[in-house]
Automatic annotation (TrEMBL), chain A:
Transmembrane segments: none annotated. Residues 19-255, 266-509 form the ABC transporter domain. It comes from Salipiger marinus. InterPro entries: AAA+_ATPase (IPR003593), ABC_carbohydrate_import_ATPase (IPR050107), ABC_transporter-like_ATP-bd (IPR003439), ABC_transporter-like_CS (IPR017871), P-loop_NTPase (IPR027417). One of its GO terms (cellular component) is plasma membrane. The lineage of its organism: Bacteria, Pseudomonadati, Pseudomonadota, Alphaproteobacteria, Rhodobacterales. GO terms for molecular function: ATP binding; ATP hydrolysis activity. It is found in: Cell membrane. This is Rhamnose ABC transporter ATP-binding protein.
TrEMBL record, chain B:
This is Rhamnose ABC transporter membrane protein. The keyword Cell membrane applies. It comes from the Bacteria. It is found in: Cell membrane. GO terms for cellular component: plasma membrane. The lineage of its organism: Bacteria, Pseudomonadati, Pseudomonadota, Alphaproteobacteria, Rhodobacterales.
UniProtKB/TrEMBL annotation, chain C:
Part of the ABC transporter complex LsrABCD involved in autoinducer 2 (AI-2) import. Probably responsible for the translocation of the substrate across the membrane. It is found in: Cell membrane. This is Autoinducer 2 import system permease protein LsrD. It is a multi-pass membrane protein. The complex is composed of two ATP-binding proteins (LsrA), two transmembrane proteins (LsrC and LsrD) and a solute-binding protein (LsrB). The chain crosses the membrane at residues 29-50, 70-92, 98-119, 131-153, 173-195, 228-249, 255-276, 283-300, 306-327. GO terms for cellular component: plasma membrane. Keywords: Cell inner membrane, Cell membrane, Membrane, Transmembrane, Transmembrane helix, Transport. GO terms for molecular function: transmembrane transporter activity. It comes from Salipiger marinus. Its main location: membrane.
Length: 515, 326, 332, 307
């Protein structure tokens, strides 16, 4: 390793790190998630951990909190080596985390979600419910969340759930607080309150590890940074010493502006028209058009209801009102089967659950919706299946050992390619890609982008739902921004800046909470 | 508080139970008398205890089909031991029954925990193995009333403040479970493991170990019930409680314990068992042909599960804010 | 790493391993081994085992259950289960007995048996797919309900006096020692094998069992497929009811008691994952043979049925546990 | 010469009554010499289970099968197959339809049993009263026949009213619960007649637990070894049973005689049965043994260790 912690220590001055990781490695079947990484966290300082999707950030968090055991390396707390065998061990040692996924219990109350595993005990070591509710209320107030601790978690929205997760992390008397993308699902006001909380924790002398993809917030709250790329630590230092451009370059390993393919788009006639689309609880007043050969971006905060609109278009859920026209004709879509028949396909956001059947081989995944074409009178013809699968996996440049390999054994990017291949094989008119590059490594990400551009050039209409601003800016011809289940604005690519996107999505303009 | 109780599953079930009792009372006065209700409770005591054990297992997203076989085997062991060594104190036999039950539960739990075999397969196997063992140790012979010592038979039926000891034991188990499930870390772990096994790991709960604990506790209860059953009916044979495992699951289902795990209460399990027990008791009393019993309990299960599914149907996520507040 | 990132090749090979290698690791081969072992053990243990007529008699121990097991295998692969199959047999048999009172002939009786089976399957299917209830609970309920209706109809009575042509369906021989039931068993093994392994419908079943959400997102009509599977299971139970009733020549409400667990055991022993998503019909066929031979072989030694069930129970856990234990020990 | 193999098929294994019968059969085998008794049966009382057992007996080519059937009709095809393969088939205790066996040995005549069970109850009710019947499974042949026979003679007991018939399914817990139901439904019940050895024990226990000893008399058919406790406590004043040891002995004797062609099963034939003398077949080739024997406090100690 070219970067030594001791060197940065000297720069930092006298304080010793509370927590230090050295030489940590971790592999999963087929993936080396972390190799020989170092990390130091200092009291009263925020260290930002930066890296692209799949760089290994969350894996490190899980090692820190006892969820994973490292294959090699050591964890030192106040200079002494420690081992966290379970999440409780880490909590007992004063390491707490807000995890990236909300790992909570829908059927339990908010208070219990906060205190599960370390509930306040009363007489005979029994759980003291009254005290638990009181303390939960106190913590929630502290982070500015207006949530009744007695409500069942099921009844909360995604942002409130995230606040509960934050409250949970703070309910542990901790010296080290890890935050893995804590602001991803929060609204502007909630984010402000979180920043204040971080400041307060700093003043209390806690060491904070802050993971985020948003550079503005990193520059606002972090004192130090550590950059991961493909499971390796590539740089560490003080925020004061770097610029945003430098950080991005370290993170991606090349200059940023070459990431997105150049394309000359000449959208054709209108293929899809959606008007007055509404759902009782999830979205309303949705109307837009989509042209041949166009990439239409959908931006919004997580939970803005973009996926819900797309899934309604795909027939997974049924809207209450509204009309969909394909090539000018009214289309009735009551199930995915009907959507596919009409030429609309959907690459879902949740690849593992909705996209790929991970235990089944690649070729069977690819041919699944096209079986009527590869079979005769309902009887499977394996040779045709392989042929079809080969055509499309070749086109997408899939990296795998063989076509009968289970999809679960592939890397995230290649799994995504299998899902896309599956839909292309149905020869659709409209392809909806929901967070197409979520959790995909750099190389595959570019491949997916290139491919998207190719599809559009071939005359396919693409809807791309994405929460990544660069991707939205780099790929879309037009962008629709959604907020709280409604369309907030529609922009042409030319008129678009990152600021307008963020403001519209978060609703700064209307509430006037200017950044 | 009160309002949320009134709308809860338990309240509705309690209402149904009271309606059932009143219905029978209207056809046959005396059914709702305290004495008779106490008798019905006493009769349902074993079902209640097993349902509570099964509840823990179901809460963790598992199922134990071997409970009735476990009961029968421990019952036979205590009866044979009592017949062979009549001097052995009953307390020792009870301790033995519970231990044996726990061991059998642990076997299930270990297979589920360490080898990751689906619980339904494990307990389908041990269901037949445990019952077969009874035949092997007893050679198929019965242990009859007169071969059992007076003390052995006396315990469950001895009266204490107007209730048989069997009922008191059930009440104690119910109270113990209420504390375990509502007030102890382990109890909450059962709910957490079934509610979201993935998230449970994040809170430091060992999923496998918690499931193991559920199986062990359920097994221990089955062991205790083994002694109680055999001493109460004063006979032990291979087929004791044959098919009872499904009654136990049915009681849990009626009581609103979600088969998908993570959702259920002690009150629900108790009421579910009481509901089933009351039907069984009421039919002969109400003069309904015994041949109707099976169909009625089947219908009750279906209605209960349909009803529970309705009341817990997931409300859609609320993304949309009403225009006025937006 | 090298496996996942092979040198960039234009076209992927179809398969990584040859058919022989795949076969050698399969569950069916393990079961076949066990079956051969039991066969040899039986010939050693009893001089009466290797007699064609005796072997033919032995097939009756499993043919009816296996016919249900084929449909149940598909249902379990799709992630559902039907515990009411024995209840369906009781109800279908009762309906046939009842129809007999009106002088219905054999074809009519068979139609009634099959129709009742289908109807029961439809009830289960509707409760599961329309109301979205868990099948294990629904069918614990309908198990009691269906048999309960038989009890209401029959009480302490029995229906008997089935015509000879009807009795043939359960006792008759097609050629030599090959009984009609055995022919049905072989026929259904073939049909279900083809349906599961060689048709789009079978592929849909497997996909649903692996990941019902992804199946739905891929345009598979999940509810419809499940409904068909419940109907098939009901139909097969109806067919088993015809055979069993014909074989016994009488109908009582306690007919086929506790068969549901034996059928599920057969399916699981056949290598079908109880969690859904995988399994094969040849495996179920072998499991049926294994269970039939174990019970018959031990029966020849006059071992009581309950002791046989210990064998089956141990086999069930053993065949799943031992490979995992070995893997664990090797892994260390 | 190979020993003659006689299979004694019970309704289910583990029932004390059949165990005692098996001992009687062994006694007969010892007396006859060169005879082997195979005592077998299904684990639970189902016809399907018995058919599997019969099939395996056919496969072993036993010389004779003597069966107490769970279902008089369902076992017929299997038994007919046995007869076709030259196996002697008789039924005993619980009969098989005539086409499925060569002869039937009834433990006692059905009429006698029907008369005995009501007499047992009536003897202790000089002023009359209410009685209820606790039967075995609703499908068991012999219980149903006995109850029918009992009903035929009810006019001899004008003061006695049969208020209900319930079924305990030969399960201890179900019988117990059904008895409780009877006691609650008919608070002035005087006697319970349980013509089943499982039911009578459970009923006596339930009466005892309900504190009704002295008010409700449990009677019917039971085994002395199992009923000793009930007689002692007074829950049962008396009960009756034929001697299962003798029954098993006689069945084995008859099976041996028929299988060795020493006798043939024709109406009117007389078959010698060792120490039990002989039986004579009626028009349906069935024969009955003697009247059931009554046990009470005076003789129970003598018999409770025998069967
Ligand atoms: N349980 C697991 N099994 C197999 N592979 C895993 C597992 N968890 C993570 N990985 C892989 O390890 C790599 C690092 O993942 P990790 O979640 O740590 O990334 P990250 O930096 O947190 O990304 P993001 O910004 O998307 O959250 C990825 O390639 C991922 O697919
Ligand atoms: N109330 C909630 N409880 C739990 N998870 C939620 C909730 N709301 C949203 N999520 C999860 O958050 C993620 C994004 O939510 P959703 O799909 O509703 O938002 P979206 O606007 O469509 O955003 P995107 O597609 O950008 O994620 C999904 O993985 C979803 O499962
Ligand atoms: Mg992450
Ligand atoms: Mg989404």
């Amino acid at each position: 390793m070219s970067y030594s912690i001791d060197m940065t220590d000297q720069i930092a001055g006298a304080t010793d790190p509370v927590l230090r990781l050295a030489g940590i490695s971790k592999s999963f079947p087929g993936v080396k998630a972390l190799s020989d990484v170092e990390l130091a966290l200092y009291p009263g300082q925020v260290t930002a951990l930066i890296g692209e999707n799949g760089a290994g950030k969350s894996t490190l968090v899980k090692i820190l909190t006892g969820l994973y055991q490292p294959d090699a390396g050591r964890i030192e707390l106040d200079g002494a080596a420690v081992r966290f065998a379970t999440a409780s061990d880490a909590a007992a040692a004063g390491v707490t985390a807000i995890h990236q996924e909300t790992v909570l219990f829908d059927d339990l109350s908010v208070a219990e979600n906060i205190f599960l595993g370390h509930a306040p005990r009363g007489r005979f070591g029994l759980i003291d419910w009254a005290r638990m509710r009181r303390e939960a209320a106190a913590i929630l107030t502290r982070i500015g969340a207006q949530i009744d601790p007695a409500t069942p978690l099921r009844e909360l929205g995604i942002a409130s759930k995230h606040l509960v997760a934050i409250a949970r992390a703070l309910s542990i008397e901790a010296r080290v607080v890890v935050m893995d993308e804590p602001t991803a699902a929060l609204s502007a006001t909630e984010i402000e309150e979180l920043y204040e909380l971080v400041d307060r924790l700093k003043r209390e002398g806690k060491a904070i590890l802050f993971i985020s993809h948003k550079f503005d917030e990193i520059f606002r709250i972090a004192d130090r940074y550590t950059v991961f790329r493909d499971g390796q630590m590539v740089d560490a230092g003080r925020m004061a010493d770097v610029t945003e451009t430098q950080l991005v370059e370290k993170m991606v390993g090349r200059a940023v502006d070459t990431i997105f393919p150049q394309r000359e788009s000449v959208p054709g006639e209108v293929v899809l028209t959606v008007a007055g689309y509404a759902h009782p609880t999830e979205f309303a007043d949705i109307g837009f058009t989509l042209r041949r050969g166009e990439i239409l971006g959908f931006y919004g905060l997580v939970g803005a209801g973009r996926s819900e609109v797309m899934q309604a278009l795909f027939g997974v859920t049924r809207p209450a009102r509204g009309a969909v026209r394909i090539d000018g004709r009214i289309a009735v879509i009551r199930s995915p089967a009907e959507a596919i028949a009409q030429g609309i396909v959907y690459v879902p956001e949740d690849r593992g659950r909705q996209g790929a059947v991970t235990a089944m081989p690649i070729f069977q995944n690819v041919t699944l919706p096209s079986l009527p074409r590869t079979s005769r009178r309902g009887f499977i013809r394996m040779a045709e299946e392989f042929a079809l699968a080969r055509t499309y996996t070749e086109r997408l440049d899939l990296r795998a050992a063989a076509l009968d390999q289970p999809v679960g054994e592939l890397s995230g990017g290649n799994q995504q390619k299998v899902v896309i291949a599956k839909w292309l094989a149905t020869r659709p008119k409209v392809i909806i890609l929901d967070e197409p590059t979520k959790g995909i490594d750099v190389g595959s990400k570019a491949a997916v982008h290139d491919f998207m551009a190719e599809l559009a050039a071939e005359g396919l209409s693409v809807i791309m739902v994405s929460s990544e601003i660069p991707e939205i800016l780099g790929m879309s011809d037009r962008v629709i921004v959604m907020r709280e289940g409604r369309i907030a604005a529609e922009f042409d690519r030319a008129r678009l800046t990152p600021e307008t996107l963020v403001r519209t999505a978060a609703g700064y303009d209307r509430k006037g909470v200017a950044a | 508080m009160i309002r949320s109780f009134v709308r809860s599953r338990e309240a509705i079930l309690l209402g149904a139970l009271i309606a059932l009792v009143l219905l029978v009372e209207s056809r046959f006065s005396g059914f709702a008398s305290p004495g008779n209700l106490a008798a019905v409770f006493n009769d349902t005591a074993i079902l209640i205890m097993l349902a509570l054990g099964q509840m823990l297992v179901i809460l963790t997203r598992c199922i134990d089909l071997s409970l009735a076989s476990n009961l029968a085997l421990t019952g036979m062991v205590t009866a044979m031991l009592n017949a062979a060594v009549p001097g052995l104190p009953v307390v020792a036999l009870i301790a033995l029954a519970v231990t044996l039950g726990v061991v059998m539960g642990m076997v299930n739990g270990l297979l589920v925990w360490k080898l990751d075999i689906p619980p339904i397969v494990v307990t389908l196997g041990t269901l037949t193995i445990y019952r077969g063992l009874i035949f092997l140790i007893s050679d198929g012979a019965w242990v009859n009333s007169h071969e059992m010592s007076a003390a052995y038979k006396a315990l469950p039926r001895a009266e204490l403040i107007g209730l048989p000891v069997l009922s008191w034991i059930a009440l104690a188990v119910i109270a113990g479970f209420a504390v375990l499930v509502n007030r102890s870390a382990l109890g909450r772990a059962f709910l957490a493991v079934g509610g979201n096994p993935h998230a449970a790991v994040y809170t430091g709960i060992d999923v496998g170990r918690t499931r193991f604990a559920a199986f062990a506790i359920a097994g221990g209860l089955a062991g205790l019930c083994g002694y109680l059953w055999v001493s109460r009916y004063a006979v032990a044979y291979v087929d004791v409680a044959g098919g009872f495992e499904l009654d136990v699951v049915a009681a849990c289902v009626i009581g609103g314990i979600s088969i998908a795990g993570g959702l259920g209460t002690v009150g629900g399990a108790v009421l579910g068992a009481l509901f089933l027990g009351t039907i069984k008791n009421a039919l002969p009393v109400a003069g309904i042909s015994p041949f109707w019993q099976l169909a009625i309990s089947g219908a009750a299960i279906i209605i209960a599960v349909a009803f529970n599914a309705r009341s817990s149907a997931k409300a859609g996520r609320l993304i949309l804010r009403p225009e006025s507040t937006a | 790493m090298s496996l996942l990132d092979p040198p960039r090749s234009r076209s992927l090979p179809d398969r990584l391993t040859g058919p022989a290698a795949r076969l050698s690791r399969s569950w069916e081969v393990l079961l076949l081994g066990i079956a051969v072992l039991i066969f040899v053990a039986n010939t050693q243990a009893s001089p009466y085992f290797l007699d064609p007529w005796n072997l033919s008699d032995a097939t009756f121990n499993f043919t009816e259950k296996a016919m249900i097991a084929f449909a149940m295998a598909l249902l379990i692969i799709a992630g559902e289960i039907d515990l009411s199959v024995a209840g369906i047999i009781a109800l279908a048999s009762t309906a046939m007995g009842w129809a007999l009172q009106f002088g219905l002939g054999t074809p009519g009786l068979v139609m009634i048996g099959l129709a009742v089976g289908l109807a029961c399957g439809a009830v289960n299917g509707a409760l599961v797919t329309r109301l979205g209830l868990p099948s294990i609970v629904v069918t614990i309920g309908t198990m009691s309900l269906f048999r309960g209706i038989s009890y209401i109809v029959l009480g302490d009575q029995a229906f008997n006096g089935y015509p000879d042509s009807f009795a043939w369906l359960g006792r008759g021989y097609v050629v030599w020692v090959i009984s009609f039931e055995l022919v049905l068993f072989a026929l259904f093994a073939l049909i279900y094998g083809i349906v599961l392994h060689r048709t789009n419908f079978g592929r849909h079943v497997v996909t649903i069992g692996n990941n019902p959400t992804a199946a739905r997102f891929a345009g598979i009509r999940v509810e419809r497929v499940k409904m068909v599977l419940f109907l098939l299971t009901g139909l097969m139970s109806g067919i088993a009811a015809v055979c069993l009733t014909a074989r016994l020549g009488s109908t009582r409400p306690s007919i086929a008691s506790a068969w549901e667990l034996e059928v599920v055991t057969m399916v699981v022993l056949g290598g079908v994952s109880i969690l859904g998503g995988s399994g094969s019909i040849p495996g179920v066929v072998l499991a049926a043979l294994v269970m039939g031979m174990v019970t018959f072989g031990l029966g020849l030694l006059n071992v009581p049925g309950i002791v046989m069930s210990i064998f089956i129970g141990a086999l069930l856990i053993g065949v799943i546990a031992i490979p995992r234990l070995v893997a664990r020990i090797r892994g260390r | 010469q190979d020993p003659m193999r006689i299979a004694l098929v019970a309704k289910s294994l583990g029932n004390g009554f059949f165990e005692a019968a098996a001992r009687g059969a062994e006694e007969a085998a010892a007396e006859l010499g060169n005879t082997e008794i195979i005592y077998t049966g299904p684990t639970s009382t189902t016809a399907e289970g018995q058919i599997e057992v019969i099939n395996s007996l056919i496969a072993q080519r036993v010389d004779a099968i003597a069966i107490s059937a769970n279902d008089p009709d369902a076992v017929v095809p299997a038994l007919q197959k046995a007869m076709q393969r030259g196996i002697t088939v008789i039924s005993w205790d619980s009969g098989v339809a005539p086409e499925g066996r060569e002869m039937h040995l009834a433990p006692s005549s059905d009429a006698l049993i029907g008369q005995t069970i009501i007499k047992l109850a009536a003897d202790h009710l000089p002023e009359g009263g209410k009685v209820a019947v606790l039967s075995a499974t609703s499908t068991s042949t012999n219980q149903n026949v006995w109850i029918a026979e009992m009903t035929k003679v009810m006019d001899q007991y004008p003061d006695i009213e049969v208020v209900a018939t319930v079924y305990g399914d030969d399960l201890a817990d179900k019988s117990y619960r059904e008895t409780q139901g009877l006691i609650q439904t008919y608070p002035d019940l005087d006697a319970i007649i349980a013509p089943t050895s499982v039911g009578i024990v459970a009923a006596a226990q339930a009466v005892q637990d309900a504190g009704k000893v002295g008010q409700v008399n449990v009677t019917g058919l039971g085994l002395p070894s199992e009923m000793a406790g009930a007689i002692e406590s007074g829950a049962s004043k008396s009960f009756a049973i034929w001697n299962p040891v003798d029954l098993g002995y006689t069945a084995a004797m008859i099976a041996h005689a028929l299988a060795s062609d020493a006798a043939s099963a024709e109406p009117g034939a007389e078959i010698a049965t060792g120490r039990m003398g002989s039986v004579t077949l009626d028009d349906e080739t069935s024969a009955a043994m003697s009247e059931p024997f009554t046990y009470d406090a005076s003789n129970i100690d003598e018999f409770k260790s025998v069967f």
